[in-house]
Specification:
The chain has 94 residues and is an alpha+beta fold. The protein has two helices and four strands, in the order E-H-E-E-H-E. It starts with a strand and ends in a 25-residue tail after the last strand.
């Protein structure tokens, strides 16, 4: 299995149609989310595919998209009922 890295993806989309399309794309890669922020465990190839798909949907002048790689050396801290992110043995991307 390829090595996966945890990313946080977030968007701010001004058009309802593009928002729906972006949501559909991100749901295909995310293992968790809250509103317009998603946790995504991605291989390098999946990262490139995600960026290409989002680039094809969003307007570069009106919308915003952010993909941040989280440093695996950092300690994860959770509050309340939150669960620490884990890399499950398999992912369905579809």
């Amino acid at each position: 299995m390829s090595h996966r890295t945890l990313y946080i993806a977030a968007y701010d989309v001004s058009d309802v149609g593009r928002l729906r399309d972006a949501l559909k794309i991100l749901k295909g890669y995310a293992s968790g989310r809250q509103k317009s922020v998603f946790e995504c465990f991605l291989t390098p190839a999946e990262r490139q595919d995600l960026i290409a798909q989002v680039r094809g949907v969003l307007d570069r002048y009106e919308d915003r998209f952010l993909l941040v790689r989280l440093d695996s050396r950092g300690k994860v801290r959770t509050l309340g009922k939150a669960l620490k992110p884990t890399d499950p043995p398999w992912f369905y991307v579809g």
